[in-house]
Amino acid sequence: MNSYQSYKFEGSVALGAGLAVVAGTNAGGCNLPAAANAKGFMGFTSDSLPASSTGVAVPVARGRCRAVAVGAITHGHWVSIADNTGKVQDCQAAVDAAPGTPAEVNVIGKAETDAVNSGDVVVVTTQEFVVQIATS
User: Fold this and answer.
1) What is the largest CA-CA distance in the chain?
2) CB atoms within 10 A of CB 6
């Protein structure tokens, strides 16, 4: 079951459905992530907004959600924010990485379906946690 919350979009670009958004600068606001592996995940957009919709409320879903993939994703794998567009990427290899180069992986959910190409829609169950990769 999904839960929905509306947040005021703080960006100025067009916003598609199925994109990951993060906490905005202001209380009650959301925005597209600044980069891959962003912190502050709020959920996935369930509606679209045209460009220049700053301040317009957009419904954001959590639970079992549709998400837009940046490339190949395998069902059952963990996903994270891929880039500044709000698409998601398979991050299972990073989660499973052996100690070595220190890193932090901000996981936002688990893929329930597969993606092959950029733009494919996958079903993701939201579940956020951070994986710390230690130095060997």
Assistant:
1) 47
2) 14
Q: Is the dihedral of CA 121, 81, 61, 110 positive or negative?
A: positive
Let me know the angle formed at the C-alpha of 113 by 66 and 86, rounded to the nearest 5 degrees. 40
Tokens read off for 20: 């990951």
Say if pTM beats, i.e. exceeds, 0.70: yes
Query: What is the C-alpha R_g of the chain?
Result: 15
Whether 2 and 64 have beta carbons less than 8 Å apart is answered as yes
CA nearest neighbour of 125 among 40, 66, 63: 63
The answer to whether 128 and 109 have CB atoms below 8 angstroms apart is yes
Give 37-89 pLDDT, tens digit per residue: 999 999 999 999 999 888 999 999 999 999 999 999 999 999 999 999 999 99
**What letter would DSSP give residue 134?**
P
Q: Which residues make Cβ contacts (< 8 Å) with residue 39, sequence separation at least 6?
A: 22, 106
Q: 71: exposed, middle or buried (C-beta count within 10 Å: 0-12, 13-18, 19+)?
A: middle
